[in-house]
Design goal:
about 600 residues, mainly beta, six-stranded mixed beta sheet, five-stranded mixed beta sheet, 40 strands, binds sulfanyl-(tricuprio-$l^{4}-sulfanyl)copper, binds dinuclear copper ion, binds calcium ion
């Protein structure tokens, strides 16, 4: 027995000695262990989807966790040629962007739909801080579905889904405006929290709140919508905004607000009833918290709302039932946001300390001195942090993502501007462990994790061929007016039908295109040189776009997504005849009745088979 033990001890010592000589001391073996924990072999899948806001990239980054691999970017508020998203001025998506605030956005907070207090994998909402918008992303196809310009509000910052069943998406208007929206109004500025219906994407009502409404969360029972307010002073400059010792955590009583709206107590502006809490007592409670707070996060059990101090080294713990402050523990310098594990611990990001601090909620509330559990350094200046499931009623307690504002020396230098830095931390043990880091383009603010086991089965393989799709055999080139032509086109490896389209200078050419592939990932593109057009059609997708002023010439449209060995041959011609040249309108499919193509004033329709 003793002998065996001695042998084991000796072999451990030998291994340790070997590792020392190999240069892997304690740090080395910790790194090997961490690497194994985040390694996802080729062909295998990550355990989580992480949705990271793209900040001024105007998009959502989809990253696999634990690998940190970027799987997809979902363009939302900015055109993206790679996905044929909103590129051409006449793309309906582009028009929607232009009409709601422009072709860029600043996304901050991804918020997934919930059922019974956990993610249901249907939708993800994301705000555009810059232009006061809210977008909805369908998670079955990972595409932007709806974009809403929110009336009566500038600077849509904090958003939160109202738990537990996504009754509304609440959106905070951070940048205050004169009450009537006119610069001539000398009254103090103000803003609103907008409550948006998740299905219709319409604003149901708004509640007026003064003081720059910042970050949001909902109580787990859906009674309150919490929002931090950092400018109770109503200052117009930085100095003016930091006068008071305390600002506020606002609690909007949603049921009371709904009742007041039903009783007609809202003043309708731009089609939306606005409640003024001064006239409707009980709708808004302001809880005083240390000056200029930032994040607010409700604990998974729904008992407490935690406001992070930012300028104060504390977090303020508010009892959600009584709206009273129960504790204000010190956690470190520059606390911004808080997330949770499944064992009663909170994790707060410390911007100035460049740390994540882990603290025990019950101990902090009880006022015992040992509430701080652990601290870990991050690189550098962390903003948000998110633990898997940390925003739901069932946190997973395994991974935490630190979203750091500055990366400085962490990656190969790429000029004075460096990428954003995310760090993955293991929170399954008492002590936090740094596992890995990965960069992204600017600038993720917040992130949410969704278990692959939840979402994977909900993701579609091909789009459903809708009623508006062009069917194989149903392709046509139709003159729909003196200066309008519609092309009903299909695409399948590796040809467009029709391949040749002749129009006249001055024609408006509408391309209605369906990718009739039925196999996953068989995406075709449709790029038209010199006309600002690139459309990308995943299998089953139909898109329509009108080119208003094609210039005379021959234009080869071609496929931009590599699809087969004949991908480079996948192209066709748009022939634009000069106005006064020989008029030659294609009856592309031979034998088709061309009577309908006769254009008033045009003598005849010449036939030319474009195949
Ligand atoms: Cu803290 Cu816009 Cu969420 Cu950024 S906000 S950090
Ligand atoms: Cu279709 Cu390349
Ligand atoms: Ca203030």
């Amino acid at each position: 027995m003793t002998r065996i033990v001695t042998l084991i001890v000796l072999s451990i010592l030998a291994t340790a000695a070997l590792m020392q000589t190999m240069g892997c001391g304690e740090t080395g073996s910790a790194q090997v262990r961490a690497a194994q924990e985040v390694y996802v072999p080729p062909g295998e899948h990550d355990r989580y989807y992480a949705f990271l806001s793209g900040g001024q990239s105007g998009s959502v980054f989809v990253v696999g966790i634990p690998s940190g691999r970027l799987i997809r970017e979902i363009p939302v508020f900015e055109p993206r040629a790679a996905y044929g998203y909103a590129v051409h001025p006449n793309d309906p998506r582009r028009r929607e962007l232009e009409s709601t605030g422009g072709a860029w956005g600043d996304t901050h907070h991804p918020a997934p739909s919930e059922t019974n207090g956990v993610y249901d994998g249907r939708y993800l909402w994301i705000n555009d801080l810059a232009n006061g918008r809210l977008a909805r992303v369908r998670l079955d196809v990972f595409e932007t579905d709806r974009i809403l310009k929110i009336p009566n509000l500038q600077g849509a910052h904090g958003i939160a889904v109202v738990s537990p069943n996504t009754k509304y998406i609440g959106v905070n208007g951070e940048f205050e405006q004169p009450t009537d929206g006119l610069a001539t109004n000398p009254a103090p500025y103000t803003s609103v929290v907008a409550f948006v219906d998740p299905e219709s994407m319409q604003v149901k009502f708004e509640v007026r709140v003064n003081g720059n409404i910042d970050i949001a969360d909902s109580s787990k029972d859906g009674r309150y919508f919490f929002a931090t307010v950092y400018n109770l002073e109503q200052g117009k400059d930085m100095g003016g905004m930091i006068q008071f010792d305390r600002d506020a955590l606002a609690a909007i009583d949603i049921a009371a607000a709904e009742k007041a709206v039903a009783e007609g107590k809202g003043v309708v502006r731009n089609g939306v009833p606005i409640l003024d809490p001064e006239n409707v007592p009980g709708v808004l409670t302001l809880i005083p918290v240390p000056k200029n707070p930032h994040g607010v996060n409700v604990t998974p059990d729904g008992r407490y709302a935690i406001a992070s101090g930012k300028l104060s080294p504390t977090v303020t713990i508010v009892d959600v039932k009584t709206l009273k402050i129960v504790a204000e523990p010190e956690v470190g310098l520059g606390p911004l946001h808080t997330t949770f594990d499944d064992r009663g611990n909170a994790f707060t990001s410390l911007f100035l300390d460049s740390q994540v601090v882990k603290w025990n909620i019950d101990k902090a509330v009880a006022g015992t001195s040992d509430y701080i559990v652990d601290r870990i350094n991050v690189h550098y200046n962390i903003g948000h942090l998110q633990a898997a499931g940390g925003e739901t009623m069932k946190p997973h307690g395994d991974f935490l993502l630190a979203l750091n504002k500055l990366s400085k020396d962490q990656y190969l230098p790429v000029g004075p501007d460096m990428p954003e830095a995310q760090e993955l931390i293991d929170i399954s043990g008492e002590k936090m462990r740094m596992l890995a880091a990965f960069p992204t383009p600017p600038e993720p603010h917040d992130a949410v994790f969704m278990a692959a086991s939840l979402l994977k089965s909900k993701v579609k393989q091909v789009f459903d061929l809708g009623a508006d799709s062009v069917k194989e055999g149903g392709e046509s080139v139709v003159r729909t007016g003196p200066d309008a032509v519609t092309v009903n086109m299909t695409m399948i490896r590796s040809a467009y039908t029709p391949e040749t389209i002749e129009v006249r200078e001055g024609d408006h050419v509408t391309f209605r295109m369906t990718n009739v592939e039925t196999i996953r990932d068989m995406t075709h593109g449709f790029a038209l040189p010199d006309h600002g057009l690139n459309v990308s059609l995943p299998p089953g997708a139909t898109k329509e776009i009108t080119i208003e002023t094609p210039k005379p010439g021959v234009y080869w449209f071609y496929c931009t997504n590599f699809c087969s060995a004949l991908h480079l041959e996948m192209r066709g011609r748009l022939v634009v005849q000069p106005k006064d040249g020989p008029v030659k309108i294609t009856d592309w499919r031979a034998g088709q009745n061309v009577a309908g193509l006769q254009v008033p004033g045009v003598p005849s329709t010449e036939k030319s088979n474009g195949r």
